[in-house]
Design brief:
about 80% helix, about 375 residues, mainly alpha, single chain
Length: about 375
């Protein structure tokens, strides 16, 4: 007997497919023993990978740092290319300038900073005595109701005992090994930086070949934008830190500080941390300048605070460019998370990584979500 259509015509009605069973989030594996073995193997391999990363963390940090320095030097090479200089010659010029800068730091800046640091440490006891005999110190003790001299004496005694303990337990040996390790790591970073600078385009091309051909143009455009942004941000951060160091050096000379180069170098490295670095150094620099005198500390605090406002509202928008588009709270969160996970280096790369994630979100994730105008069928 044939099926009759609802309108009375003798036409076959297409068969109705039975509804497909809904997928559940929990299904029993067909082979529990084999599945359990694969899961256990995955856990073991993951643990081995984590252990390997921890064991080679120093090497990975050196490679990571060299890559960031190379990306920071790449804008200079691109600027030379715009002036009709071949890339090979531009790489040679930038590489020679980089090596010259390293030589100046090692031969001129480092000895001066070390000598000033030694003099600063030697002068700490006399500076403490001078502070304890000052009138403002007596007023501070009276207002707090504490014997600050006794607190300082106990702290110095504890640090002295700790120093003796570290020396007895091999602290000097560990310090020596740390210095040797730092020197070797610096050499590795310099060599890797030169290699990355000379072969950056080749590395980017090799990475692009791992992507399917139909997605390769979009991937290359996205990678060029990210690397250009990271290079600009790193170069801009180094420029702002150098300006910070120069301003600190001038202020320290004006107030008669015996360690202007040391304070400038400390300012350079601390202010590499985005946004919060300047605030941290303002506090640290004001405290250290107290060893020179209260008025000197006040002058430094006021002048550096003025510079912080100029840096925030004038210099940073011009130097950092597109990085200013990153919201401030994301920079702070990224810096705190990076410092927690990877220490000082993690805080340094907060802006580049945050900006890169925002680029991926805006150009990949958001367009893909905008293209989804129909809700998916939840029954399948």
């Amino acid at each position: 007997m044939s099926d009759i259509a609802p309108d009375g015509h003798d036409e076959p009605v297409p068969p109705v497919e039975p509804p497909r069973p809904r997928r559940t989030w929990l299904t029993l594996p067909a082979n529990p023993i084999g599945s359990g073995f694969l899961v256990s193997l995955g856990v073991v391999l993951t643990g081995a990978l984590v252990f390997a990363i921890g064991a080679t963390s120093t090497v990975l940090i050196s490679v990571f740092l060299a890559a960031f320095i190379a990306l920071a030097l790449d804008p200079a090479i691109r600027a030379l290319e715009k002036r009709h200089v071949k890339r090979s010659i531009g790489v040679l010029i930038v590489g020679v300038c980089f090596l010259a800068l390293v030589a100046v730091i090692c031969l001129v800046v480092a000895p001066t900073v070390i000598s000033q640091f030694v003099e600063f440490v030697k002068g700490i006891p006399d500076a403490i005595v001078k502070i304890e005999q000052s009138q403002w110190w007596a007023n501070l003790e009276a207002s707090l109701g504490l014997d600050l001299n006794k607190l300082i004496a106990d702290s110095v005694k504890a640090s002295a005992n700790l120093s003796v303990l570290l020396a007895v337990s091999g602290g000097v040996l560990h310090a020596g090994l740390g210095i040797i390790g730092a020197i070797s790591s610096s050499i590795i970073v310099i060599v890797l930086t030169l290699y990355f600078v000379s072969s950056l385009e080749m590395i980017k091309g090799a990475i692009a070949t791992l992507v399917p051909a139909y997605r390769r143009p979009t991937f290359i455009t996205l990678m060029d934008e990210i690397t250009g942004l990271v290079g600009g941000v790193v170069a801009g951060g180094v420029t702002l830190s150098a300006l910070n160091a120069a301003v600190v050096f001038v202020i320290q000379l004006l107030i008669g500080s015996p360690v202007p180069a040391l304070m400038a170098i400390v300012a350079f490295f601390i202010t590499l941390v985005p946004m919060i670095g300047s605030v941290l150094y303002w506090i640290l620099g004001s405290i250290v300048t107290l060893f020179i005198g209260p008025w000197q500390a006040l002058i430094f605090a006021v002048l550096y605070l003025v510079y912080m406002q100029i840096e925030a509202y004038v210099l940073t928008p011009r130097v950092m460019g597109r990085a200013v588009a990153v919201p401030g709270f994301l920079i702070i969160i990224g810096a705190m998370a990076g410092a927690t996970l990877f220490g000082f280096l993690g805080a340094l790369v907060a802006i580049p990584i945050t900006a890169s994630i925002l680029i991926i979100m805006r150009q990949v994730v958001v367009p893909k979500q905008d293209a989804r105008t129909v809700a998916p069928d939840r029954g399948r």
